[in-house]
Amino acid sequence: MEIIVEKMEELRQISKEIWKNPELGYEEKYAHKIITDFLKNNGFHVEESYLHPTGFRASFGTTTDRRESGGGGGDKGSSHACVMVEYDALPEIGHASGRNLVTESGLAAAIVIKSSIERGETKGKVSVLGCPGHEGNGGKVDAIKKKFFEDIDFAVSAQPYTSDISTPLMLTIMRLCVTYKGKQAHASAHPWEGRNALDAAVLCYNNISVLRQQLKPLMQIHGIITKGGVKPNIIPGETEMEFYLRAKDHVDMAVLQQRANGAFVAAAKATGCEIEFNFQEKPYSNLTSNPTLAKLYEKNAEKYGISFTRNCEELQIPVGSTDVGNVSHVIPTILPTFSIGTSARNHTEAFAEAAGSDAAHECAVNVGKALAATAIDVMSDKNLQMQMKEDFTSVNSASMTAWH
Question: Which of 168, 102, 111, 162 is nearest to 131 (CA)?
Fold first, then answer.
């Protein structure tokens, strides 16, 4: 881990610069430049603007012919590890998800793995995938469709949070826009000629609120009215609503979609409006953490002073949703959460402030070390490679096939 000592200040500065200059998804030009410059300067082969203008992939090392070896872990094969980094911010509240720290921990992990390969201690290859537009845009889903993960054996990343959890609960999510189309009319002179699309939206919201009482614990629906009309004396002819549907897995999501659809359509029928659905094309799958990787990560993280929560109630609280979930249905994957020394919750101004602190930097670097140690353990042990693959097959065969 000597390389971390050498690069500590540089990693801190990268994290700080991303934090001070928040950029929305697919607009992360500054972050893209400073991250790719760092990787180039540290001996990685970098392909800029991979899949998206602000995406990239970087690699170091080699693997033997995968067709002969059957992939990583074979007698003739060597492992290929992927470290995923994210760097987009949220509207108005900046890095309230701490993705500057996702990048910092990922870069720390990548340079340690590279150093181990370079010194001949580890055989194989490490790739870094730059994932822009995590907040709803699904950059990793695009990477899956472009077969980026086909020759990769496992993937790692980490997410800042209020506590350290090796296998966080992350839900399947479906995003959609619901549009109600009615008929405009003068609200005072001839209201009977109108069909009120705002009434449809209000009824829809109330329908969903009532439905929530009857849903299973991990089924969630969040919604807002994004377009409600133009003027009080004009009966709204069109309204729009944005909804997020979340569930434990794809089976429950199918049930939730069916029940939510009843609430959406009922509002249209009651008001005489037409209804249109526009689904976001890249839904996120639930995270299926690889047990072998998760156990190794816990063991390594504890060496760096990371203490994992054992609070059962906290472990049952969903952390959110992520396109890392989609990756976890394709190859063995972990996405542990890590504390940054604050009790503030994600997606708040207070968490954004904490994400720029020195304490958060120290946490991110330690997580990077633990991720690297986990990857090196697997890359150096054929038995662990086999166990990781067996766990992947076992866990994922019990779930619905992910949408890629």
Answer: 102
pLDDT tens for 220-271 read 999 999 999 999 999 999 999 999 999 999 999 999 999 999 999 999 999 9
Q: What is the pTM of this model?
A: 0.90
pLDDT digit string, tens, across residues 44-93: 999 999 999 999 999 999 986 444 444 444 444 589 999 999 999 999 99
- Domain extents in the chain: 2-170+286-397, 172-279
Amino acid occupying residue 348: T
Instruction: Report d(CA 280, CA 172) in Å as an integer.
Output: 13
- Homologous superfamily of domain range 2-170+286-397: Zn peptidases (3.40.630.10)
* pLDDT band at residue 314 under the 50/70/90 scheme: confident
221-225, long-range: CB within 8 Å, 24+ apart, which pairs? 221/245, 221/246, 221/256, 221/260, 222/246, 225/201
Tell me if 74 sits within 8 A of 336, measured CB to CB.
no
| CATH code, 172-279 | 3.30.70.360
Across the range 114-122, mean pLDDT stands at 95
Judge contact between 297 and 258, C-beta under 8 A: no
CA torsion sign for 201, 205, 210, 211 is: positive
Measured CA to CA, the distance from residue 77 to residue 174 in angstroms comes to 38
Find where tokens 């979609």 sit. Answer: 257
Looking at residue 77, what is its pLDDT?
A: 53
207-211 LR contacts (CB < 8 Å, sep 24+): 207/263, 207/264, 207/266, 207/267, 208/243, 208/260, 208/263, 210/263, 211/259, 211/260, 211/263
Query: pLDDT by residue (tens digit) across 22-44?
Result: 999 999 999 999 999 999 999 99
